[in-house]
Amino acid sequence: MRSSNPVFSRRGFSRDNGYAGFNTAPQAGYAQGNPYAQNPYAQNPYAQQGVGAPPQAPATTDRMTMDDVVVRSAVTLGTVAVGAVLAWALLPVSGSSYGLAVGSALIAFVLAMVQSFKRTPSPALILGYAAFEGVFLGVISEMYNSRWSGAPFQAVLGTMAVSGATLLVYKAGWIRVTARYARIGLAIAMAFLVVMAVNLLLVAFGVAEDGGLRSFGPLGALVGIIAIILGAFFLTLDFKQIEDGIAYGAPRNEAWLAAFGLTLTLVWIYVEMLRLVAIFSNND
Fold first, then answer.
1. Quick one: CA torsion of 123, 165, 4, 187, rounded to 10 degrees?
2. What tens digit of pLDDT does each residue of 223-260 get?
3. Cβ contacts of residue 36 below 8 Å, gap of 6+?
4. 151-171 and 123-147 are packed helices; what angle lies between their axes, rounded to 10 degrees?
5. Coil, strand, or helix at residue 251?
6. In the 8-state DSSP scheme, what is residue 119?
7. Residue-wise pLDDT tens digits, 161-194
8. What is d(CA 213, CA 106) in angstroms, rounded to the nearest whole number?
9. Are 55 and 49 in contact (CB under 8 A)?
10. Is the torsion defined by CA of 6, 188, 33, 176 positive or negative?
11. Which residue from 31, 117, 125, 234 lies 20 to 30 Å from 148 (Cα-Cα)?
12. Contact at 8 Å (CB) between 63 and 251?
């Protein structure tokens, strides 16, 4: 499973670089409309239970469970939180700390890219990414807090609200994660990233002023809302991949990849929420 962050491609709980079931053909004896007909790890459990029956993971102690995902996600997010708290407490708001934040972000990006292209999870890489990402978040959170008091706390609450609402909508079945849903969402996310990259270049060369599309005005707020919606979209893919991984008996170490994907997405939402809080605070 690759990361759920829009910056990275996704592989799902499979060994063929495709989604779990999204890019696979139905096996004999299955309903043609079932998008998860092929089990990437073992014989599809639907073959024994019949179409429509809920999948059951093979009975073995070496398969991923929800507890595995929760524990590893807690460890990964906890590492991010510890890194952020230490950076906030130990690093003053200055040019040197901003440089450290940029350096930490670059190291985190490299570690995330390495993990994304690995076929197996590496807890050391994932936790290393989380630690450096935490330093970056701690510095920028302190920066925002020095100008917009309470912005990081509000951004955390906003991130929790978006995540909780997305999970509620997903569990209620209001969003059905299908191959078509994933393709459309990924196409929109890629278009968004291309536009943001072009905007960054225009700002860097002085063509666009005040951040261009990423300004702290109404246009920047609209872009931020779109980015948060995309983050929620990637959360639904994360939830589906975790659900499929458990149902199809993914190896236990895949729980680290689930935690990695969730962390990337939550960091994305938090950063965008932080900007959005600052924009709305400017308009008060």
1. 180
2. 999 999 999 999 999 999 999 999 998 999 999 999 99
3. 20, 21, 55, 244
4. 130
5. strand
6. S
7. 999 999 999 999 999 999 999 999 999 999 999 9
8. 23
9. yes
10. positive
11. 234
12. yes
